[in-house]
Amino acid sequence: MSNVGIPEITAKLLAAKKIKGLSFADFETMLGLDEVCVAAIFYRQGTASEDEAIKILQALGLSLDLVSELTACPVKGLGPIVPTDPLIYRFYEIMQVYGMPLKDVIQEKFGDGIMSAIDFTLDVDKVEDPKGDRVKITMNGKFLPYKKW
Predict the structure, then answer these.
(1) Catalytic site residue 93?
(2) 16, 76, 100, 123: most buried, per Cβ within 10 A?
(3) Which of 8, 68, 90, 134 is catalytic?
(4) What single-letter DSSP state applies at residue 22?
(5) Looking at residue 134, what is its pLDDT?
(6) Nearest Cα to 103, choosing from 143, 58, 53?
(7) pLDDT at position 4
């Protein structure tokens, strides 16, 4: 994996995770947080509590001086450019193709509003298939209706 464009703390966390032979699922068990949530903390797209940060750093054998970096509010998002990583680009492509259809279907079912990305969960599952394993992604967000004022 290339470390281009990722925060320095992320590179440290991922390198230590690799050396220790740990997976995000291992951290899910350790912290009681979903593996995607833990990965978001590693990539500084999410914030750890102080206790979670300490557990992460201790498991990785890293200095507790990094607690403040893991508990700080992150700057979220990929930035203004089209992603170039093929896997991440596929999600961008999916939204380019299915974004408006999803919006219309959601609004038909719920009305005018959005799906929260704050009151939200994201699960990744492997579905075995004889024709080739499948990736199953479940996004579950609270519906937030637009209000009139």
Answers:
(1) yes
(2) 16
(3) 90
(4) -
(5) 98
(6) 143
(7) 59
Tokens of residue 66, six digits: 């990094």
**128 classed as catalytic:** no
Catalytic residue among 93, 108, 128, 134: 93
**pLDDT, tens digit (0-9, with 9 covering 90-100), for 108-145:** 999 999 999 999 999 999 999 999 999 999 999 999 99
Burial class (CB in 10 A: 0-12, 13-18, 19+), 100: exposed
Q: What is the pTM of this model?
A: 0.78
Say which of 108, 116, 128, 134 is annotated catalytic: 116
Per the rule left: phi > 0, alpha: psi between -120 and 50, beta: everything else, 21 is: left
Q: What is the DSSP string of 57-112?
A: HHHHT--GGGHHHHHSPPPPS--SSPP-SHHHHHHHHHHHHHHHHHHHHHHHHH-S
